[in-house]
Amino acid sequence: MNQLENTSLKMYSKDYSKKLFEWNNSDQYKSEIDFLNSLLQIQPSNKILDYGCGIGTAIKMLSEKHPQAQIYGFDVNRFDGRVVDDFYIRSEFYFQFDRIYFMHSLAHIPDVVGMLGRLFDFQKPQAKVVVITPNYDWLWLKNGMKEVKTDKTVIRHFTLKSLKDTFLEAGYEIEMAGMYGHLMGQEAERLYLVAKKR
Questions:
Q1: Strand 172-184 vs strand 187-197: parallel, antiparallel, or unpaired?
Q2: Which residues contact 119 (CB under 8 A, 6 or more apart)?
């Protein structure tokens, strides 16, 4: 990597960190963390993984609600100003989790089906996988029925059907899935899903 590319990546990381800080400090994000918390049903003995944790705000908020649970984060990017740096898993997972969640991170992952399959080895038998992600149909309506990409790190957004299909293809059983949040016609802003491996 040359000096120009390295500088560009650092600037991008800094700019994206700023965007994450602004979003993670919004009332909407805090409300979504409360909803995530209700889906996770965290127990004191749980080991939990935030996959695609960004700067770690969700880890911090959930750790404050559940101080006895062990909540870890994993992200392929290294963002400036991490909130809970001690909790980051560098590359490999060395134990199994009771809960794995994706809080606005699934849309940034290239091979979602493959990644979900690889996570099987790191789930306890009754582990739950929880997703909160933007609803493509809501974004499409909000954007005047035109193609939408919210930022350049997004690979794809999901509809409720494509989200369920992705988890079924990866070998999961869906316990619940739906929409919630701000409405646009018959669509709500966010999708959620709770699944476990078959």
A1: antiparallel
A2: 51, 100, 129
Side-chain half-sphere exposure of 68, counting CA atoms within 13 A = 5
**Amino acid making up residue 90:** R
H helices of the chain, in order, are 3-24, 27-40, 57-65, 112-118, 136-142, 160-169
**Cβ neighbours around 78 below 10 Å, total:** 12
Asked whether the beta carbons of 55 and 21 are under 8 A apart, the reply is yes
d(CA 26, CA 7): 29
Specify whether the CB–CB gap between 188 and 181 falls below 8 A.
yes
Please write the tens of the pLDDT for every residue from 106-165. Answer: 999 999 999 999 999 899 999 999 999 999 999 999 988 777 666 778 899 999 999 999
